[in-house]
Amino acid sequence: xxxxxxxxxxxxxxxxxxxxxxxxxxxxxxxxxxxxxxxxxxxxxxxxxxxxxxxxxxxxxxxxxxxxxxxxxxxxxxxxxxxxxxxxxxxxxxxxxxxxxxxxxxxxxxxxxxxxxxxxxxxxxxxxxxxxxxxxxxxxxxxxxxxxxxxxxxxxxxxxxxxxxxxxxxxxxxxxxxxxxxxxxxxxxxxxxxxxx
Length: 197
Hints:
Elements: E1 5-9, H1 15-24, E2 28-32, E3 43-46, H2 51-60, H3 64-72, E4 77-80, H4 82-86, E5 88-92, E6 104-109, E7 120-124, E8 134-138, E9 143-147, E10 152-157, E11 160-166, E12 169-172, H5 183-196
Parallel strand pairs: 1-2, 1-3, 3-4, 4-12, 5-6
Antiparallel strand pairs: 6-9, 7-8, 10-11, 11-12
């Protein structure tokens, strides 16, 4: 099977770390900044960063509707932290004008785990990711308040949902790309491979 090509939305956030993690997981990874760069992708990662800034930049660069169409098409998408917010159908504690790409029938609370100085790391057991817990880096992280019937909860931490999947769309509250453990990215790359077959 040929190596899948996975884009990393490069409007803002920790793009380089995702490119490295995807390459380690045997994907061809490339940054995506313009609508035409979505063509030919087998999957897309929406990184952490600042969700309100990402939302504004997506509008400014004409990416909002193309990204929504990409998600709706059933292509695999993985959102981390701010990326989780961007793939949520509904958002709490965001700006009134904040847009999301949608894709997962969930309500996400922005900055739910606290401010920047309350960031932390924790071991998280994720359904479908073998080898024991992964180290989750939580930086101004959201959590999932509620999910629809089609959403699979993959992980919880301290009583809150922190990893979910609906169809080909995956999301985590935390940043696995900031650790040396790339099993979550390997899980996503495997999802991309299955979607292509």
